[in-house]
Amino acid sequence: MSSAAFIVIAVLTLAAALAAATLPKLIHAALSFAIAFVGVAAFYFLLGAEFVGLVQVFVYIGAVAVLIVFTILLTRRDPEKDRGFNWGGVVIALAVFGGLLWSIFETPALAVLAPTIKPLTVKQIGLTLMTDYIWPLQCVGLVLTAALIGALILVIEEKS
Amino acid sequence: MTPTLQLFLIISAALFCVGLLAALSRRHAIFILIGIEIMLAAAGLNFIAFWRFAPPPHQPTGVMVAIFAIAIAAAEAAVGLALVIAVYRNYRTTNVDELDQLKG
Q1: pLDDT at A82 (0 to 100)
Q2: Which chain A residue shows the shortest CA-CA distance from B79?
Q3: Within a 10 A sphere around the Cβ of A80, how many other Cβ atoms?
């Protein structure tokens, strides 16, 4: 795990996430959101979880970002007159960040280096999913089906 | 200097707080959804970091939880964006400050 790659990915991810949170135009924010998720996927690759990184790219950049862009296009006639920014949110976010930093630095067991591990293969992940995690897998399938049907019912046009 | 677990947790905490900032301080419903997605990604990053830095008998638990979290986040995004479209169709706005019909 090289520190140069870590610094580059960290700066890219945080800058893109901050841009997604603060840019006034919605479509720019959606594109920064996609870049931030490329950064998170790069972190997964750096940590040795290549399969999760690939799933992240497929699901977030391939599906969620496209969904967000389509929603922006469908609701575009909304006048974006309110560019107001609620500064109370900034204060709360900074307070939460301070609390998290304090608890991270107060825990000495976290200052460890990564042990050398055997790479986790896709075959191994598939076997674990199909044996130990079969119930969660079925439940997630049910949740996804229910969410798909629910989303369709929500946006269906009522003929009057 | 190679990155320690602490550094990954700090990055993840910063990412979480950026998401919290977007969810709390923007008034457009899609920005709030983007903030929630960023917070979920920060949680997933934490799971993977703890899995990678765990001491030897190695179980793939962190990876499994991260995969399930991504699936749940995708379902949440689909339903959330469908709600935004349905609200826009009925009220012609996506500003969450104007949706105050339940206020007493």
Answers
A1: 52
A2: A151
A3: 13
Top pLDDT among B89 and B42 is at B42
Distance CA A14, CA A27 (A): 18
Walk along chain A (160 residues) in steps of 10 and give the mean pLDDT of each run: 86 92 86 93 90 92 90 74 70 93 86 77 89 93 94 82
Q: Is A111 on the interface with B (CB under 8 A)?
A: yes
First to last CA, chain A: 61
Q: Is the dihedral of CA A35, A39, A41, A42 positive or negative?
A: positive
Interface subset of A 31-70, CB within 8 angstroms of B: 33, 36-37, 40, 43-44, 47-49, 51-52, 55-56, 59-60, 63-64, 67-68
Contact B83 A154 (CB under 8 A): yes
- Length of chain B in terms of residues written: 104
Question: pTM of the full predicted structure?
Answer: 0.90
